[in-house]
Design brief:
283 residues; 41% helix; alpha/beta; 18% strand
């Protein structure tokens, strides 16, 4: 039986066909998958997923927003239907991928909603082309970098993945990246199916990212920050610090009981506030 995520993904692809839009675009030699759905005449919102996830993690969020907004999701380098990469890249490259997607769709400006690494690249897109980013929705993310023990753990993850793929790490990753009692079987199955080759490049982008804390003052668009109270991957203190560092933050939302992916596991506490924020600052 198809999962609800798979059914939703197919529905999004049907919308793509109806709109006459191809589900891939090319940037920097990389073929990237995306879906353009929702209200075609509404303000555009681009959703960028977290590490080891893909665009379908926003399925329930888009359901709450699609009547008012043009909702665009994409699979970043190394993940989902975009697939493996064969060369190094940075989150600045991923930010340029996002901006190239706006160009491809002939969208002048949009709100950016980014979860974890999706937040890393969304903030960098706002620094690269501030006039094109009307608002930011940031979920479980931060402006600074990881401490050395965390970087070392990702180095170990790279080696374990090269040896045996997700076989030895899927359970730990489920707890780290999703958390709680949420049924993450759809994600663990996807990780087991991911190739070993090329995995080091997304990991290196994650661990090698630069600290943009001192540049946050240049991101002047309205922003809202969400963070799970029990996030084991990025402590909630980093979310609070990010909200304080952005000059035009309109709210910091603690999602009680949520881990690293509150928009996925606790959408009922994210969707309403996110929709309210976008309606107010995208109109």
């Amino acid at each position: 039986m198809a999962s609800s995520d798979d059914i939703h993904r197919r529905a999004l692809c049907v919308d793509n066909k109806r709109l006459g839009i191809m589900p891939f675009f090319n940037c920097d030699g990389q073929r990237l998958w995306y879906v353009d759905t929702g209200n075609a005449t509404g303000p555009a919102v681009v959703f960028s997923h977290g590490f080891l996830m893909d665009g379908s993690m926003f399925a329930t969020n888009i359901e709450a927003l699609r009547s008012d907004f043009r909702c665009i999701v994409w699979d970043q380098r190394g993940f989902g239907q975009t697939g493996a990469v064969d060369k190094p890249f940075t989150f600045w490259d991923s930010a340029r991928d996002l901006l190239a997607l706006l160009d491809h769709l002939e969208i002048g400006s949009a709100a950016l909603v980014g979860m974890s690494q999706g937040g890393f690249l969304s903030m960098r897109a706002a620094l690269l082309e501030p006039d094109r980013v009307r608002a930011l929705g940031l979920i479980s993310t931060r402006a600074d970098v990881d401490v050395q023990p965390v970087i070392d753990s990702f180095v170990q993850l790279k080696q374990m993945w090269a040896d045996s793929g997700a076989a030895l790490v899927a359970d730990h990753l489920r707890s780290l990246l999703i958390g709680g009692d949420f049924d993450a079987s759809r994600w663990t199955r996807a990780w087991h199916q991911m190739p070993k080759a090329g995995f080091e490049y997304p990991v290196d982008a994650l661990t090698g990212r630069d600290d943009i804390t001192l540049r946050l003052q240049k991101i002047t668009c309205p922003a809202i920050v969400f963070h799970g109270s029990n996030d084991p991957a990025i402590d909630i203190a980093h979310g609070r610090s990010l909200a304080l560092g952005l000059p035009n933050t309109k709210g910091f939302v603690t999602v009680d009981g949520a881990g690293h992916a509150p928009n996925l596991t606790h959408p009922q506490f994210v969707n309403g506030l996110l929709r309210e924020f976008l309606l107010r600052y995208m109109s």
